């Protein structure tokens, strides 16, 4: 394989063992998602050459960064790394910080200028790092990494030090990076919304091992993974904006049928991702047009999984799209639900992700 990425790495640290073997596409965003302590950062650091004891193999395209015969040091691996708290040089301006690494990398001026422009840094160039907000600092860190012409961008929880509002502000910039960097991006996160919004490919980790890997929506929508047991379990659907009314209500086309959600002024035709959480879906035997709910989807019940605490998670097929619904045990008995039944899924809330 010369055009993809291969990572086969082992790290032993006290009780903890990282042991992964992955083949990834050398394009788009691969999100590495998993609970705290599952080894996400250790994996990223081992790829970057920052874990001295990591054994195994790292190849990107035709380049070998590590195998049984050789192990390139961190500075010879063409990675751009952005951490949760990226250290900028305090005595230099934003411009000085950007030029520092860029000069050493010998990258073209146009590359530096392009990222300053795209990440809207022109008004900040003369400022010192200690006068920047957390989000502005991360934008500088992204530009600094990308201006050095990396082969692979590695992001270690780049948003987790930011509050919700700042995170929402920086997400469009990450999307611009994803569209325009032309290099693969590894994005470590423990935030479901981030993985669901940004990932093309998803690696799910637990206790140092890969639990699942594949196209993001396939992994996110699998009902047999620990994700389906989380409080915020749900599905992610591809959608396209069909219309927006005078009150800002969007009509969205999805494989499951038309869904409505409030959202910003997206032009008709805009592709979006939606997240429908299981706790926002209820089930009915008949179509109720007398309800305030706008989102009613025909669905077939595939199975019922008991959850701790007396709840049941229903797995549904909504005309080809997956859907999960969290209902009470009593509702299962009252409606006499069994696999194969035709039902109506009532969707209370739909979150727009893009
Ligand atoms: N510097 C260190 N020294 C000793 N143990 C460490 C060190 N850093 C991490 N660990 C341990 O290694 C394991 C993996 O940690 P790692 O930071 O890779 O997980 P993570 O999935 O990135 O977690 P988080 O989401 O909390 O950042 C954990 O058991 C952690 O306690």
Automatic annotation (TrEMBL):
Keywords: ATP-binding, Cell inner membrane, Cell membrane, Membrane, Molybdenum, Nucleotide-binding, Translocase, Transport. SMART domains: AAA. The keyword Hydrolase does not apply. Residues 290-354 form the Mop domain. GO terms for molecular function: ABC-type transporter activity; ATP binding; ATP hydrolysis activity; molybdate ion transmembrane transporter activity. GO terms for cellular component: membrane. NCBIfam families: modC_ABC (TIGR02142). It comes from Thermomonas brevis. Pfam families: ABC_tran, TOBE. This is Molybdenum ABC transporter ATP-binding protein. Gene3D superfamilies: 2.40.50.100, P-loop containing nucleotide triphosphate hydrolases (3.40.50.300). The lineage of its organism: Bacteria, Pseudomonadati, Pseudomonadota, Gammaproteobacteria, Lysobacterales. Residues 2-232 form the ABC transporter domain.
């Amino acid at each position: 394989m010369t055009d993809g990425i291969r990572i086969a790495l082992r790290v032993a640290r006290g009780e903890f063992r990282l042991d992964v073997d992955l083949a990834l596409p050398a394009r788009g965003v691969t999100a590495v998602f998993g609970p705290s302590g599952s080894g996400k950062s250790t994996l990223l650091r081992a790829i970057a050459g920052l874990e001295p004891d990591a054994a195994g193999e790292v190849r990107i395209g035709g380049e070998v960064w590590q195998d049984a015969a050789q192990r390139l040091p961190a500075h010879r691996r063409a990675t751009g790394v952005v951490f949760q708290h990226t250290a900028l040089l305090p005595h230099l301006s934003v411009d000085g910080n950007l030029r520092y690494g860029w000069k050493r990398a010998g990258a073209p001026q146009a590359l530096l200028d392009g990222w300053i422009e795209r990440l809207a840094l022109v008004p900040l160039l003369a400022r010192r790092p200690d006068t920047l907000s957390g989000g502005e600092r991360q934008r500088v860190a992204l530009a600094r990494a990308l201006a050095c012409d990396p082969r692979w961008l590695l992001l270690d929880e780049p948003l987790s030090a930011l509050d919700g509002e700042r995170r929402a502000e920086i997400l469009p910039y990450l999307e611009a990076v994803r569209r325009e960097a032309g290099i693969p991006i590894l994005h470590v996160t423990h935030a479901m919304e981030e993985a669901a919004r940004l990932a093309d490919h998803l690696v799910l980790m637990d206790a140092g091992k890969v639990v699942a890997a594949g196209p993001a929506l396939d992994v996110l929508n699998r009902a047999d993974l620990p994700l389906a047991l989380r409080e915020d379990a749900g599905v992610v659907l591809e959608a396209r904006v069909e219309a927006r009314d005078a009150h800002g209500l969007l009509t969205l086309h999805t494989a499951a049928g038309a869904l409505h959600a409030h959202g910003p002024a997206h032009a008709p035709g805009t592709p979006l991702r939606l997240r429908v959480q299981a706790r926002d879906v209820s089930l009915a035997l008949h179509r109720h047009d007398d309800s305030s709910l706008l989102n009613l989807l025909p669905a077939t019940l595939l199975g019922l999984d008991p959850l701790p605490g007396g709840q049941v998670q229903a797995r549904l097929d909504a005309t080809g799209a997956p859907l999960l619904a969290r209902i009470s045990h009593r509702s299962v008995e009252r409606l006499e639900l069994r696999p194969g039944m035709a039902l109506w899924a009532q969707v209370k809330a739909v979150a727009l992700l893009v």
